[in-house]
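User: I'm new to structure prediction. If I give you an amino acid sequence, what do you actually give back? Let's try with this one:
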Amino acid sequence: MNTDLQNPENFRTGAPYEIYKYLRENDPVHWQEEPDGPGYWALTRHEDIKQVELDSETFSNEPTVTISDKNQIGDETHKHLIFSDAPHHTAHREMLAPEIGLTRVRPAREGMETLVDSIIDLVIEKGEADLVEDLSGKMASFAIADLMGLDRDHSLAMFHAAEVLTRSISTSEGIGLEAMMTLFQHATTAYQERKDVPREDTLSRIAHGEIMGIPVDEFQFQVDFQLLVSAGSDTSRNVLSTGMLTLFEHPEARQALVDDPRLLPKALEEILRFTPPIMAMRRTATRDTELGGTQIRAGQKVVMYYGAANRDPAVFENPDTFDITRKLNPHLTFGGGRHHCLGAHLARLELTTMFGAMIRRMPDMELAGPVDWPELGEAPMVGGPAGIPVRFTPGSKVVDNAVAPIFG
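Assistant: Good question. You get back a string of structure tokens that encode the predicted 3D arrangement of the chain. For your 408 residues, that looks like this:
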């Protein structure tokens, strides 16, 4: 079997679960060569990946969590939240947590329902749509735009740029460079506006915040801006898109949700387990250690493949079966330990609301053509389709007025 985890063709239409299964059974701590790097240890067992997630002293997020060493952001005093360790990570997370944590998300439930219905209203009378562009993409983009304090319509180009950057393509030319410049320009404008005239929004509080006693400057603002845009839009968009594809492939599960919407919370956790949007995440060993009986040397990279962990038969009964009534579901889609996804509460609210609304208002939605998968420059760390044509019985609009921003 071709087990090359650096070959983008193996990820062309999603995660390579057969490769994961082979490695998990035969070589769970697998040495993977890199075409332009030193290589890394690829982890495919739930137990090993959980150990790495929980031991941030031994397995560092610095200098980067991407497989390639080229993707490093910031410097000694300007750090990306995910690409950092304590004490910077602790202070940085404390600054951002109130902006995206449960206390901010919980009051937005009713507003999220109205926002989602307004998005569906844009296509419901047509009886056809592109699931990614018209539904999941707008849901993720508008929700995070509201949270950040950005204009929804103007944000669409920015969130498209973030999607382009997940394809692991060159950012020194072509659409990759264009996407980088789009995000940079949006962040620069937002910073200047909020430094001059602060507003009651997340970006203003970041612009006037501090981390470890150091005021946030434009460089740090740029880093946090891109974090919120990419992490806040890509993952939710991809879970909704791949989740609906999974429901198309399992019509009995979708019908069960139509018949009993109370199954949705468990169904969402199973969708998150079955098709996690983040393919892989890297750590770097800070000292000599051992994983699954394999010696890891200080400085070596270890890469966690979440899709493999989420289908480990040592943890999940019938792991390759999509079961929306699964009782025990300790998936690792949101990571673990101190780096557990800060946006998990927002993601669950977005996804539960949108899945519920689509199942209620478009119960007969089906594929109307081939799924469009993006061209990949390298093996991706975040994955999902670029387009999914769908059709459904037309319906009526339900939202009469423009929807106000859903986050206070």
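You can read the tokens as a compact description of the fold. Here is one thing that stands out. The two ends are 53 Å apart (CA to CA).
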